[in-house]
Every structure is written in structure tokens, then in C-alpha cells.
Give the backbone structure.
Amino acid sequence: MRKGNIHQVKSSSRRGLHISSTKMGYGHKTEARVLNARDLRVDAQNSRLQSLKRKQDEETARSIEKLRRLDVPEPTGSSVHTSTGTNPALTYDAVNLDTVLAGDAALPLSHAGGEFMSMLLDDFRAGNRQKYEDPRTRQDRTQRRTEEFQRQLFPMVDAYLAWRQDVGEKGFENAAPPVDSPGDGFKVQVLDMFRIFTLSTGIRDPDTGISAALLQRGLVPCTPKRPSLAVTVRVLEFYRKLHLRSPHVSIQPYVKTLCDIFGIPFRSYLSEQFSICYDVYAQILEEVKLRVARALKRDTPQWRLRNACPACTYKLEGEDKLIFDMLVTMDGNDSLKQLRRNETDVEILDIDGVPSRQAQTDTRNVSGDYYLTREKVDRWARARVQDLIQQQVPLSDSKEDNPCATRWTNMVNEVTARMWGIFEETGIFLALCRHGFVLVVADMVRSSELSKYPLAVVEALIDAFGAGIGGGYDIGCKFSSTLDASDLGSKAHEFRYTALVGSFHGHAHNRLCQLSSLATYVPGMGLEDLEGCERFFSKSNALASSIRHASTFHRKQKILEYIQHMDNFDTSQALSNFLVNNYTQALKILQTESAVRDAMAEQGVENGSIFHRWLEEERAYLKGLKTEPVEETLQMDYYQKLVNLAKRE
């Protein structure tokens, strides 16, 4: 006997084996399969129906046989007979209905013994009922809805602008649609801030122009054709502002709050409908921004990036030349992760044994130039892999040039590094200017903080701002070696890009590394600590709970909205205070100059140049120190033994 092929399918809830065929020695071909749970349920249902049908036939035969023995006529098509005579009387199974109506006899209404037959008939009919299989999928419906809304986008934007012009200075409190509107037409349920009601739109054909017609009244529909629900603009705008100020508040608790106000039970489909309306509203607002940018001639490539920060990008005539033309800071954060979504029961494993993602197709993408595309980021990953495979050389030519090369694990195992298989986007990697404005951001996709992300960021910054950039990074020392070994190294040297280490992370570095890269000892840094990313992440981490289970588009949408809100409101409004506080702090430091000179005189220090000489001497000493002195090693060992002895006592 020759065995057939065996295929194994791994499911999230069960496993099954399917043997394709088995050929016997006599030439007979048989089909054999091991049934899974679904097949077993189907076979059990068929067996039950067959058994019920046999019992029904047997019961019918027994009933007919009993009637024959009692010498009672077998029932025909109708069990109700009409007797002849001047006063006909109806009979049912030899029962005179006239006597029953007169109260002389009782009508036998008992259904004793018939329950079993009714159950058999119900089960039999249920088994033979054909089930309609809908070939459409939710993925197709989502895509068609997106495409239809996209076709109606420009008319909806025009209608929204006309409505906002009518609202004018009255504000949203006077922008509520009328509860009672004239005309019949198409009716839609309206969700307002403190009420929910049905509105007659007066539109006879809801398949054409319904979205723009509703926008003219300040309503956003949940579907492009024949919507059953429309949400007022002020409800959507209130949620948008609330979510940006308190990112913990997502759509579901907001909709639940509205249901509590209306006194109606919450249903999950209400959150879905509200989410659709919000996506349409956000798309309309984005199109309005693009129109304003085109009108102001601000739609050229990289205009937003080159004008992100007034203090960094605006140059004055006769301004003194600084050591660094611009200071930036960059870092990665893994709080804004997104779970991978699989829409099928069967898990398809990749070569690493990680389930692949089979989520709903969504062609929508966020606009603007904040996000670096995956293609731009992965281009450096492919170049890095080729470099590692072909050259097989370390990132730095000498460990003395980079004393921290072996101390940091952010970029270890770059070829195979990846995040847990349950996440798709494992965080974000962004760059800020020294004043806190977001310059660029990239998604970390199924990986940890690899070198391709800072390389892509540095390329974008050099293309936008040119020469003289100083970039702070928590592992700036190691990234400097990575940058030199990459294809971007020559360009970075040409444009004088300098990799630095922030003041907070710098104290965890090797002392020799601190003397070269720590912001405290680098000329031209002033009061800057290059730790703006940490302050940004302390606020953006509040987004984590609302985007962990979101789709790729909605995750980017929420992150981008939060970044734009931070730049336009918090960072921009705090810029003046930031500059004034730094200037005030610098003046206070300069006022202590006399006290410092007095202290220097007491210690016999002639001038400030000796401090730079001390740093050079310390650097030369540490470079020449191959091993720790034996005397210091013995002293530390002796001290540790005393500490251990004291603990035992």
C-alpha cells in the first residue's frame, strides 16, 4: 500500500489532518479523511435528520394501523365533514359540534402524543431549508464605501465650506439642524449633542447627492448612499478636540456617553457608524487644509519641513555664524504598538514561524510629509544587509574610536532583529528640533530600534536643511560608526553632520565617550540637553490604549492628528516662553561669572583655558589606559569584601 500526501493546517482553535488519497494493492482507489469539528457537526445533523424521518414514517404507519383496528375511516385531505339535512351539523372525528356548542359534550383539544411529531417535523424542515451564502465580504464593502466617498469628496468639501460660512461667528451652539423640517423625501436619523431625532431631508432620490446635501445642514452621513444615520459636525468636532487633549478617550466610550445622555442602550454598531462619520469628517478637514496651502503657495515639496520651526529655520541678515546651524534630537519609542490582525481562522506561518497578517484591505493613507514611507526606510535596510553579507566587517574600524561599541544593544543582530510576532507596527521613530517641533516620523515595523530608522531620518534632514546639523541620539556614539560605514557616510561628512549624545542618556556611556559626544562638553551646545524626544513621549504614550487594536490607517491617523495638534497648539504657543526662559537662565549663569573667577583664583587657576586642557589630558589618559591599575583593582576588591562581611554580620 502506498500512502498519499498528508497536509497539515494549523488553525487558531483546532487542527485537522486531510489524507488526499490512499491506493490499495488491488488497484482500488478509496477516499479517506479525518473529519474536523465542522464536518462532524454536519454529519451529525444529517444522521439526526435521517433518524427523525425514519421515526416519523414508523409513527405514521403505527397510527394508520391503530385506526384500521378500531374500524375508523382513515383521514383524507380534510378532517372536517359536513352532514346532510335541514340543520347540518359539523363533525370532527365522530364528534358532534352542535352538542359541544350546546354544552352537552366536551371537545377533545388535547395534543397529547403530538409534541413528538411536531418536533420531528420542525427538525426535518430546518434541515432541508437552503442557506443563502452571501458572496460579498466586509472587506469589499469597506473598499466600495471608501471609493464612493472619495468620488463625492469635492462636493462634500464645497458643501461643508458653505455651511461653515453660514455658521460664521454664531458658533456651533447655534448650528443645530431643525428637528421638524418641511417635506417628505428621504428620512435619516440624526445624532446631535443632546438629542437624537429623525430628519426629513426633502430629497427624493437618496442615491445621488445625499452626502453633499447633508453636509449643507452640518450633518455627516455614515454611508455614501441611503444613510440611516448622520452625525452633526459639532458632535464630531467635540470628540476630535476631546481626543486630542485626552488621548485616552476613544470612540467607544464617547459613543457610550452619548447613549447615556439619550437614555438608550449602547450597541456596537453605533461605534462603527460613528467611526465612519469621523473618518469622512477628518478627510474633509484635510482637504480644506490642502486648499488653504495651495492658496498660500505652501504646497511645494518639503515646505512644511523647511518652515517647521520659526526659531530654527528663519535666518536673519547679518546673523552670527553658529557652530551648529540646527540642533535636532531623535529617538524611538515602542509604546505606540499595534497588534497584528488575522481575518481568517487558518494561520499562515512565514519562514520564521510568525503568523502573517491578513487584515482587511484599506487603500486609505494619511496625507502630508510627516511620515517617512516604508520604502524610504527599507532602502537602507537592504543596503545594510548587502554591506554586512559582502564585506563581513564590523561597523567601526577601531574600537578605540568608539569605546561604547559593545555597550549598547539597540542595534545588535540587525539582520535578524524583530519584535514579537503579535505586533505589526512596534512603535515610532521620530526627530524633533531643539524647540520641540516634530520634523519627521517613521513606523518601526516588526522590528526593534534598528539602524535603518535613524539613517532614513538623517537623509531626510540633510535633504531639507543642508549642512551644519547636530543630531542628538541616546546611542549617538555607535550610530556615528554606523553612519560612517553606510552609503550615507560620505554625504554626512560633506554636509558636516555631527552625531551627539543627550545629557540624560550620556551619563550611562563610557567616560571616554562622554568627553567626545556628551552635550555638556561639546562646544556650541549652550543650554540644550537634546532630550526633547523623552518629553514628547511622556505625553504621546497616552495614545497607546486607543491605537493598540486599531487598523494601520486609523493608527497613523490618530498619531498624525496628535502630532499636528501638538505642533500647532502646545509647542507653537509655548515657543515664546521657551525662548524667554532660556534667555533668562543664560543671564543668571552669566551673573555668576565673578564668583567663578574668585573661586578660580583661590584654587590657583589662571584662566578658563585650563579647563579645556584638563579635558584633553583626561582624554589622552583614558585612551592610553588599556587596563585598570592593579592598585585600584585591589582596593575595590578589598572594599567589596568588607561590604560582604558587614552584611553577613
The chain has four domains: 6-34, 138-295, 321-574, 595-648.
